[in-house]
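Table 4 source record.
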Amino acid sequence: SIIFRDIDPKDKEGIEQVLREHGIAPIEEVDPNARLAMACPALPLCGLAQTEAERIMPSYIERMRALLTKMNLDDEEILMRMTGCPNGCARPYMAELAFVGDGAKSYQIWLGGSPVLTRTAYPFMSKMDADKLEETMEPILAMFIQQRQEFEAFGDFCHRLGADAISAYTQSYTLGSVKA
C-alpha cells in the first residue's frame, strides 16, 4: 500500500492519472478481499517458512473470490491472512480466515477471528492440501449462507457457531448443493 498525504487538491487528478498510466488501480476497483489480505514473505526469503505465502496468496484470493461468486456471495468481504509457518508474522490468528503453513503445500485453517482484528481465531483444520481449498471452503460457506444472522460477518459467524458445529456440517455436506 502507498499513502499519499498533504496533496494539494489541484494536483490530485494529475497524480491519479500517473497511477492509472502505470497500472495502479484506484482503491474502489481493488477486490476488498485482496485489499484486506496480508501474507508474510515466506519462501524463499524466510528460513522458518515451510511453504509459500506471499507468492501464492494472490491465487488464494482469486480462488476464494471465484468460490464466493459461484455461491452467489459476490459482495462478501472476508479478512484473510496467510503465513508460511506457524510463527504468525502476518497475524493470521486474528483473521476471519487464515491459512497457516505447516508443510509443503499444506496449511492449517483458522476460523473465527474478528473482521476488525479484536478477537483471535481458532484452529479448524490441522492440514489442508493446497489443492483442496475449494472443497474445504465450500461447505463452510454453505453453512454461512444457511445459518448466518442478518449483517453477520464471516468471522463472527464462525466464532458464534464454533469448530464442532462447522465440522459436523461439513462432514454431511454435498459439494454444489447450496447457493445463496
